[in-house]
Amino acid sequence: MNKKTVRDIDLKGKRVLMRVDFNVPMEGGKVTDDKRIKASLPTIKFVLDQGASLVLMSHLGRPKGGFDPEFSLKAAANVLAGYLGIPVQMAPDCVGPEVEKMAKALKPGGVIMLENTRFHPEEEKNDPELARKMAALGEVFVNDAFGSAHRAHSSTEGVAHFLPAVSGFLMEKELEYLGRATTNPEHPYIAILGGAKISDKILVVENLLTKCDKLIIGGGMANTFLTAIGLNMRDSLVEAGSIDTAKAILAKSGNRIILPVDAVIADKFEAEANNKIVDVDKIPAGWRMMDVGPKTLELYKETLKGAKLIVWNGPVGVFEMPKFAEGTFSLARLLAESGATTVIGGGDSASAVKKAGVANKMTFVSTGGGASLEFLEGKELPGVAALLD
Predict the structure, then answer these.
(1) 201: helix, coil or strand?
(2) Which of 58, 191, 195, 301 is a plausible cystine mate for 212, CB 3.0–4.6 Å?
């Protein structure tokens, strides 16, 4: 990574404005999964150990503009205070005279959590005036919110124009591991893409095909590729508008794309639907593909043998429904036992390795869904581009 990090800047006695990703799931005013808060702890502790004070900012959910208690970051601040063992003051807003006064009164080692940046509609427009007001709260800007780095917002990109801007450790780690997938990867390198739609991942497919040795395609997007080779996928999800694209990708990929050979099919898109296993060319009318079958998992096992690097983004079945989760969970276990460097590209794949009980056996699990996808497409992320080289 050719960007400066918190290690490269003097923080002693400074007031650090840090963008974190505390966009965490909430229920009844309580945080239900604090993975993202935990992921930011190494940078937070490092900054405080350097004798700095800390002003934290994040977005949460999609509020409609203006303060809304349902989207307050107070619960996240309480969780953080528990981990740090010190009080975390909650600011009434993310900008304004009162917040500035609180920030300027901070002593070294003190922490303030700003209120949700999206309570200001200007945030998502990357409004420079809002960014300037945010920048007034600190002397150095640290971006540790990889999950929001693909968005050019006031709190991720705009503020970096007003303060010296460096990356936190989580951002650094994300760029290092996802960077392995896109620049000078180790070989044999196997990429796995799943999820519902090929249209969401065309650019990822095209970019990864220039880097990897084999590309496994599963999930709903496999149906469109199977249709492209002339199979009738019956009631399976197929993107009619992407069939020609799938044909073109297959034509130039040689034999490097691995598609399912059998499937767990269902007569309805429901958790309790009737199901059976058939070869992909024998799906009966009125049935749909919901998961990959045992022959496909054998094929995956064979393909992953000896791999040095495996990158996975997107489930290979409807794993939210227990009857159709086995393909995705078995694949997670194959990765855990592979001996390769395993990089999991956030979102549903991160949730799948956790549910399969093997998250701790992966080399790296990304915290960013959309951001990791755009990175794998080969795009430069605005929140990263704005940091000091």
Answers:
(1) coil
(2) 191
Query: Quick check: 291 and 327 in contact, CB under 8 A?
Result: yes
**Which is the catalytic residue, given 35, 370, 378, 379?**
370
Strand partners, 262: 279
From 4, 197, 295, 308, the catalytic residue = 197
Q: Is 36 a catalytic residue?
A: yes
Residue 270, number of CB atoms within 10 A of its CB: 12
Where do the domains of the chain lie, and which CATH numbers do they carry? Answer: 6-172 (3.40.50.1260), 185-376 (3.40.50.1260)
Tell me the HSE value of 372 on the side-chain side, using a 13 A CA sphere. 28
Give residues with Cβ within 8 angstroms of 179, minimum separation 6. Answer: 1
Q: Active site includes 295?
A: no
**Mapped to the 3 state alphabet, what secondary structure does 54-89 carry?**
EEEECCCCCCCCCCCHHHCCHHHHHHHHHHHCCCCE
Euclidean distance between CA atoms 199 and 243, whole angstroms: 10
The catalytically annotated residue of 195, 219, 220, 347 is 347
Which residues on adjacent β-strands are paired with residue 192? 216, 312
Question: Distance (Å, rounded) from C-alpha 282 to C-alpha 275?
Answer: 14
Total residue count of the chain as it appears in this document: 389
Catalytic annotation, pick one of 14, 15, 19, 36 = 36
Can you tell me the distance from the alpha carbon of 386 to that of 143, in angstroms, rounded to the nearest whole number?
10
The per-residue pLDDT for 1 is 64
347 is annotated as an active-site residue: yes
Task: Provide the strand spans (E) within the chain.
Answer: 15-19, 26-27, 30-31, 53-57, 89-90, 111-113, 140-143, 165-167, 189-193, 214-217, 257-258, 262-266, 275-279, 288-292, 309-313, 341-344, 364-365
- Give pLDDT, residue 347: 80
**CA angle at residue 146 from 349 to 359, to 5 degrees?**
30
Which of 244, 289, 298 is closest to 263 using CA atoms?
Answer: 289
The reported pLDDT for the residue numbered 356 is 95
Query: What pLDDT score does 198 carry?
Result: 82
- Predicted local distance difference test score (pLDDT) of residue 65: 80
CB 242 within 8 A of CB 217: no
Weakly modelled stretches of the chain, pLDDT under 50: none
